[in-house]
């Protein structure tokens, strides 16, 4: 046997890079994060000088320990192989409660305590108890408000978007965007119907759904998704997959949307014609599609535009905003995306911006390409939206040369 341990690398070989210390530490985040989420509020509210009566501190500690233990267990039973909706609701709710408590324990635990100390307000115990009641009060208010925000029918956000290559005959084209409906463990069939009723009041020429329809298979969430079949559009209803479809048998969702009368734009396009002018409406699978292992599923922009006249303006549907790098390189006029939820529960948006080039709204990329990122129509996981309101978006496309009045 030849010892090759010290043999030089041959051409074309590459030595596997050793993982960095940061990369190794990242593996422990799923274990560390839940502990911090519950341990920090417990410490700030109970152990930083409050000197509560004897039953309060141990009882409060037990509550936080139960949160730490129950949250991951419930989420594992709810979103793992068992797919138990009641467990998912408990786990998701505890995640939201823990996140809000953690955020405001850190902020008020530092800032309010510092302000009270500088102002010379009370003794150390009085300041500590003031911080505790402030954190609990702010958390309760934000959770109640955030729950109402998550469960309500989204407000319509209207925006005029000027596309330099849009023909005069297409000026005023009304495009409605819904995305990230995330039908899930909480039954939202009535909410779904009311959302679709709101969409129908907008008299859309084109209605788009940019993915993440649900958490769960099409078979399990069919009743919640069924109202999508009632959506009306003058020209077309189009849909592309999101990353959550690939956690839940994506092909089943493609088939159901087709059954409901939506046209799945899986790396293909259609032509929308009005007033003698034409718009290319294209769509790609989510960027996670290829790693799903499903045959034929991948994000393929060249395939989506195959056969389209390059001189025509292009509206592209892509679930994740970060696809805009490829869209801009191809000179796409407008990309519609979702995925970010606008952060959903502040200040999570700071983490979203690490992964995505845009959080919400209209942004410019390259010399031609515009990206509109929706904050989403529904919510994922925790049934709360804090400083990140949901939306149904009405985009009115404008030509630089609108038709002249007769």
Automatic annotation (TrEMBL):
Name the GO cellular-component terms: membrane
Q: Which UniProt keywords apply?
A: Hydrolase, Membrane, Metal-binding, Transmembrane, Transmembrane helix
| InterPro entries documented for this protein | Calcineurin-like_PHP, Metallo-depent_PP-like, Metallophosphoesterase_sf
Give the transmembrane region(s).
28-46, 58-76, 88-111, 131-148
Extract the GO molecular function terms from the UniProt entry. Answer: metal ion binding; UDP-2,3-diacylglucosamine hydrolase activity
Q: Where is the Calcineurin-like phosphoesterase domain?
A: 173-342
Alphabetically, which GO biological process terms does the record hold? Answer: lipid A biosynthetic process
Q: What is this protein called?
A: Metallophosphoesterase
Name its species: Streptomyces humidus
Taxon lineage: Bacteria, Bacillati, Actinomycetota, Actinomycetes, Kitasatosporales
């Amino acid at each position: 046997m030849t010892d090759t341990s010290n043999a030089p690398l041959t051409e074309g070989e590459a030595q596997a890079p050793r993982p960095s210390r940061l990369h190794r530490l990242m593996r422990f985040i799923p274990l560390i994060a839940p502990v911090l989420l519950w341990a920090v509020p417990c410490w700030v509210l109970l152990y930083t000088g409050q000197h509560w009566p004897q039953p309060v501190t141990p009882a409060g500690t037990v509550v936080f320990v139960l949160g730490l233990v129950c949250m991951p267990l419930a989420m594992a039973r709810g979103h793992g192989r068992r797919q138990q909706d009641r467990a998912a609701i408990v786990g998701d709710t505890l995640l939201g409660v823990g996140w809000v408590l953690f955020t405001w324990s850190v902020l008020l635990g530092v800032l309010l305590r510092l302000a009270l100390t500088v102002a010379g307000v009370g003794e150390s115990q009085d300041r500590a108890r003031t911080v505790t009641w402030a954190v609990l009060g702010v958390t309760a208010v934000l959770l109640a408000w955030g729950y109402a925000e998550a469960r309500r029918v989204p407000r319509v956000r209207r925006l005029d978007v000027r596309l330099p290559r849009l023909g005069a005959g297409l000026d005023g084209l009304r495009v409605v965007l819904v995305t990230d409906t995330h039908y899930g463990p909480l039954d939202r069939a009535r909410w779904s119907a009311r959302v679709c009723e709101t969409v129908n009041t907008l008299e859309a020429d084109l209605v788009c759904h940019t993915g993440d329809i649900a958490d769960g298979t099409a078979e399990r969430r069919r009743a919640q998704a069924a109202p999508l079949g009632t959506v009306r559009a003058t020209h077309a209803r189009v849909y592309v997959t999101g990353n959550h479809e690939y956690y839940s048998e994506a092909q089943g969702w493609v088939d159901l949307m087709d059954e409901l009368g939506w046209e799945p734009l899986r790396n293909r396009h259609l032509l929308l014609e009005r007033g003698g002018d034409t718009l290319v409406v294209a769509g790609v699978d989510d960027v996670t599609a290829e790693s799903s292992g499903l045959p034929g599923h991948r994000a393929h922009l060249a395939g989506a535009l195959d056969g389209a006249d390059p001189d025509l303006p292009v509206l592209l549907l892509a679930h994740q905003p970060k696809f805009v790098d490829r869209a801009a390189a191809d000179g796409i006029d407008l990309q519609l995306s979702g995925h970010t939820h606008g952060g959903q529960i502040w200040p999570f948006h700071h983490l979203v911006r690490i992964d995505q080039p845009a959080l919400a709204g209209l942004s410019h990329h390259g010399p031609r390409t515009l990206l509109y990122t929706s904050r989403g129509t529904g919510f994922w996981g925790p049934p709360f939206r804090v400083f990140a309101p949901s939306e149904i978006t009405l985009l009115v496309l404008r030509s630089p040369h609108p038709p002249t009045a007769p």
